[in-house]
């Protein structure tokens, strides 16, 4: 008996070796693989200072209490962010499912039934002569009751299932980084929209001031016309200027409504007024920015880490797909009780049943589906490498652009301030000259128009300056932590 078992075991091992050799010899060649390039420039601006603004929490980076309250509400209520959080839960459950695939499957099986066979069949004839007890034949029809514990287990010899589980873990971590990247973008979008709203408030205040100035000049011109000092033409021109400025006021109001509702949408609430303090807009001074080193982007930027996790998952997919070419070994076992009568069900050893089987399966013919899966997995891995490198390059370019913008907007704002001061002073000068007939009405109109445009441009420059402060924080990877 022992000798027969050894012979069977040796036969199984020999068969397995033959299957392995056959499949190994027919494996497709390893595809061309290139490693990802993580090299970054040594610095952004020549500085080797490792201090990085991205490490500052957003509550300390943004000091406006109204803006902080908006961001805090958005992180709780934003629908898109909450959708992403559910995707993280889905990815976590995928990890759990993959982990269970390479563990034994245990279960309980129970059943009941009956069977009637023909008396003149071989089974029927044998049952007719079988005596369960002296003087008693086999029941007809024959009931069947069974209860057993069963187990199935695929031995993960080539780590096919384990690599699939690791790939699922990497994708779960990628979804977490995707959520962090969305948080960074959400904070930046709310901050930029908030500063745009403050800029619109200031532009509307400037328009109201200009309407008052232009209306005052219009009254003076009308008085001069009544005194026959000017013609009807300057009256009409000044009147048209006042109407033009008033029409711009309504356009600004519409822009304010849209900016408020954009913020309300991001915050996850229906349209309502947005609390803000627009008076201090022009006095806001961006804090000094410390960009750190480009290599720190690899750790600070959630989108780079997300691309890195996707690349790791793609590499594991290639390994798992290649393991499909190797034989798979499965083991199944069961133990329980089976009887035609419930009263005999637990009698041992008569009603005891058990089984143990192993199977070795290897693909030999028509492996096109497995090859296609393997080649596709390799192609996706190359895609993930390019995406990872592109994400690093894009992050570096974004930081460099925003650092340059901060410096240029600072210089531009200083010059615009001087321009506004000069043109604002020229308004009073042109009005006084016009009153004394030493300047014509066109000079007054042009001066007022230029002063209005310069003040609008000053506000726009301040907004761009604040946007650069927000965007460089986002580009460095700040906000998610």
Structure in a nutshell:
The chain is α+β, with helices and mostly antiparallel strands.
Could you give a short account of the major beta sheet?
4 strands, antiparallel
**Which CATH architecture of the largest domain?**
Up-down Bundle
CATH overall fold name of the largest domain: Outer membrane efflux proteins (OEP)
Structural class: alpha+beta
Low-confidence stretches: none
Percent in strands: 5-15%
> Judging from the principal axes of the Cα atoms, what is the shape?
elongated
The CATH C-level name of the largest domain is Mainly Alpha
- The count of helical stretches stands at 11
Mean pLDDT across every amino acid position? 85
First-residue to last-residue Cα separation: 68 Å
Widest sheet: strand ordering = 1-4-5-6
Share in helix: 55-70%
* Count of distinct structural domains: 2
Keywords:
single chain; 481 residues; alpha+beta; Outer membrane efflux proteins (OEP); 2 domains; 4-stranded antiparallel beta sheet; two-stranded antiparallel sheet
Report on this structure.
The protein is α+β, with helices and mostly antiparallel strands and 481 residues long. It has 2 domains: 32-102 and 157-325 and 366-475, Outer membrane efflux proteins (OEP) (Up-down Bundle), CATH 1.20.1600; 105-155 and 328-361, Outer membrane efflux proteins (OEP). Helices cover 63% and strands 11% of the residues. It is built from 11 helices and 6 strands. The protein has helices spanning 2-25, 58-61, 65-77, 79-101, 122-128, 160-226, 232-267, 297-300, 302-322, 368-435, 441-475; strands spanning 105-115, 131-133, 136-137, 142-155, 328-339, 352-361. Strands 1-4-5-6 form a 4-stranded antiparallel sheet, with no helix packed on it. Strands 2-3 form a two-stranded antiparallel ribbon. It is elongated and about 135 Å long. The model has no long low-confidence stretch (mean pLDDT 85).
